[in-house]
Amino acid sequence: MKKSAEEEIALLAPPRMSDKLVREFQSASDALEAGRAGEALKIARKMYKLIPTSTFLNEILAGAHYDLKHWGDAIKHYEVFIAETGLTIHHPTLMDAYRTRRKWHKIDRLWRELSASSPSQELVSLGRVVYVNSLSDRGQPDEALKLMRQRTKTVPKPKYYHLEEWYTLASLEESCGNRPTAKRWFKTILAQSPNYADVKKRLKDL
Fold first, then answer.
1. Which of 50, 115, 144, 195 maximizes the CB count within 10 A of its CB?
2. CB 51 within 8 A of CB 21
3. How far apart are CA 112 and CA 99, in angstroms?
């Protein structure tokens, strides 16, 4: 049976501390969700001294460290979470952290796992964006462009991960010298989300 965070913490907590730690976990979770990664990390670090094997706590620590660009610590805690759960829901984020370290073999492994498990269109899409950007980093822009062209399409009501795909494809088209195609994709983004990233500047520079 899958445990909830409260059940896991109650099981791992020292005597008479479970209620307090459950409240602290909720505070850390709320802070992270609200974009207050520093606050979440401060709370979670104190808890970690008492329940370092908590899967849910490692997930909070990973997210907080990632948001604060503490890549090494984010990688450590995400790997613990994945080892304990077998889930791929954080693979795109972990891939991005490994990209900062240029750990290409790690990214390749995570991409294979994510593609095989296919937890959702959104997660696979976000993982693909990281993967193709890593290919470009490695000096393989043609391979990256081929993959993005195969998988990217316009939709009438795009979600944010569609915009990520379009922006990545536009950037790859531009870097490969395909300026008209890049311009078309940047215009597609602009029509749907005028303030997305630096799309206005990218269009102006083309």
1. 144
2. yes
3. 15
pLDDT tens for residues 81-123?
Answer: 999 999 999 999 999 999 999 999 999 999 999 999 999 999 9
- pTM, to two decimals: 0.94
Q: At 178, is the secondary structure helix, strand, or coil? A: coil
Q: What is the pLDDT of residue 2?
A: 52
CB atoms within 10 A of CB 151: 14
What is each CA distance from 95 to 34, 99, 106, 107, in whole angstroms? 23, 6, 7, 5
The answer to whether 95 touches 110, Cβ cutoff 8 Å, is: yes
Nearest to 181 by CA among 155, 145, 157: 145
Reading the block at residue 130, the tokens are 């990281």
Sign of the torsion angle spanned by Cα atoms 171, 173, 179, 182: negative
Identity (one letter) of the amino acid at 131?
Y
User: What's the Cα-to-Cα distance from 122 to each of 91, 119, 163, rounded to whole Å?
Assistant: 12, 8, 11
* pLDDT exceeds cutoff 90 at 53: yes
Sign (positive or negative) of CA dihedral 131, 93, 110, 165: negative
Position 175, amino acid: S
Q: Any idea what DSSP says for residue 159? A: -
Q: What is the CA radius of gyration of the chain?
A: 20
DSSP for residue 13: S
